[in-house]
Design a protein that fits this description.
3 domains; Immunoglobulin-like
């Protein structure tokens, strides 16, 4: 008994020391912020290039990369590939990176990562506009259409900004025969942007098609075509569908013109996927610097070195132990009964997408449907394995039915019922039915209410911005959490619910 107690004490102290030391090192020496919402933001854009190599043939992949201008300053960029040669060459107003290898087989993956900030460093100025704009050579119907549009646009515009907005507005009018001649049958954003450039350059206004990434956190984002026009002071960017002018800090122009983003020689099935994340500048700026200089092995073997999509997955997984810890504290010290430990935590994870109120409603509806079906199955005297399989199938059908009915009723929140873990729901229904039979309906409902209460508290903890930031940025805090859970597991005293339950006995003694 003493040896196990000593081993537990030693393990707890070791975890506390290691976890606290890791956190102090990251916060004190690496400069990672302890609080979310720092004053400066760092955007990290990662492009993943995938293709299948043709066996025995050399590979040459050419990929357009941006030349940062205006208010965006580069913090660092990196090229990640296995056994490929890498070179960067200028390509007009932008740059291009060339990956090459003599031989490769199978699926290939190349990564380009760019870290930038609108507040750090001094960005280079915008390039000057062309000294003279040569109008495009047009003939026939296109020439007449452009001339007609220019006459109307000049009458209803006062400067280059309003001229550009009016041009885009008229090209989006599908009832205008002149617009249809220039845009064609495909009213896509890229076709409208190209037609707008033709009209602007015909008016001798410097313009080109720009392809930009919106600067907003997303696991997957696609480049959007924009209309770029120069008003004498600098380049302005407009959405080709709405004609609205964009804030330069909200987009990153990746490349311009009609040239391809990616060209692969010696491969097939090429594709590019972009992901964007926003994180504290102190962490990633320093991480990038230390990683490039090989000054810290910690950075190289931390979550900061993972691809963005993988890192965003761990941002969800890292808050799960927090929810489990809340449930353990409720069960050990408060005495609230739940259907297991992990069921409320997983339900709380689903609440992150459904929101708390709708999550409770949908969860209760699934339990009601499941309990009704489970009561009907009792008369068939099925084996446990078969009954669970039937319940799982019924839960899936119930989830699909709720989604369809809520969609038809215009309640889009009902679609999020698909986020609930169906296996956990089926097991919960089974355990609630057994509790109902063995301990009565009121006890089963009390345990179900306790499970929902624990899931709600876990949800609140798992969505608190400060908690999410701390556990994701400082993994050592999870070791501290493990130490606290080990201490909780050795507790043998009274629970708060038991003190209330036995208060009469305490009075008599």
């Amino acid at each position: 008994m003493r040896s196990s107690r000593a081993a537990l004490t030693t393990l707890v102290i070791l975890l506390l020391v290691v976890g606290t030391g890791m956190t102090i090192y990251q916060a004190g020496f690496l400069g990672l912020p302890l609080k979310p919402g720092t004053e400066e933001d760092l955007w990290t854009i990662e492009a993943r290039i995938g293709f299948r190599a043709r066996s025995g043939r050399p590979i040459l992949a050419t990929f357009q990369i941006p030349e940062l201008r205006g208010n965006l300053a580069e913090i660092g960029e990196s090229f990640v590939s296995r056994n490929y040669g890498v070179s960067v060459e200028p390509s007009g107003a932008h740059r291009k990176v060339l990956w090459s290898i003599r031989r490769a087989t199978g699926e290939q993956a190349l990564y380009y990562r760019l870290a930038l900030s609108p507040r750090i460093g001094v960005a280079p100025p915008d390039p000057p506009p062309p000294q003279s704009v040569t109008p495009p050579e047009l003939e026939g119907a296109e020439q007449v259409a452009v001339g007609t549009l220019l006459d109307a646009i000049r009458r209803q515009s006062a400067n280059i900004r309003t001229f550009t907005a009016e041009t885009i507005h008229r090209l989006n009018d599908r009832d205008d025969d002149n617009a249809r001649v220039l845009v064609g049958r495909d009213p896509a954003a890229l076709a409208i942007a190209r037609a707008a450039v033709v009209v602007l350059r015909s008016a001798r206004i410097p313009a080109h098609v720009a392809h930009a990434l919106p600067l907003r956190p997303a696991a997957r984002v696609d480049p959007e075509p924009l209309v770029a026009s120069h008003n004498g002071d600098g380049w302005a960017y407009y959405e080709p569908v709405t004609g609205g002018r964009l804030d330069p800090d909200d987009v990153l122009v990746w490349w311009q013109g009609d040239g391809p983003l990616l060209a692969v020689e010696g491969g097939s099935g090429a594709s590019v996927t972009f992901s964007v994340t926003e994180e504290p500048v102190a962490s990633l700026a320093l991480a990038d610097e230390l990683g490039n200089r090989r000054a810290s092995r910690w950075i190289q073997f931390s979550l900061l070195s993972l691809p963005l999509q993988t890192r965003q997955l761990y941002q969800v997984l890292f808050v799960l132990p927090v929810g489990v810890g809340i449930i353990v504290l409720l069960r050990v010290f408060v005495g609230i009964e739940t259907f297991g430990t992990f069921m409320p935590a997983l339900i709380a994870l689903a609440f992150r997408e459904t929101e708390l109120l709708w999550g409770i409603v949908l969860f209760g509806l699934l339990l009601l449907i499941g309990m009704s079906i489970r009561a009907a199955l009792d008369h068939l005297k099925l084996l446990l394995v078969s009954r669970l399989a039937v319940m799982l199938t019924i839960v899936v059908l119930a989830m699909a039915g709720i989604s369809v009915v809520s969609h038809r009723l215009g309640i889009e929140r009902g679609l999020s019922v698909a986020l609930f873990p169906m296996v956990i729901i089926a097991m919960t229904i089974e355990r609630m039915s057994i509790t109902w039979e063995e301990r009565g309906g009121p006890r089963a409902l009390l345990v179900a209410a306790g499970s929902l209460f624990a899931a709600a508290l876990a949800y609140l903890a798992m969505t608190e911005p400060t908690i999410v930031h701390v556990v994701v940025t400082f993994p050592g805090t999870l070791l501290i959490l493990v130490a606290l859970l080990l201490l909780a597991g050795s507790y043998r005293g009274y629970r708060l619910m038991e003190l209330v339950r036995f208060r009469e006995l305490a009075r008599r003694t």
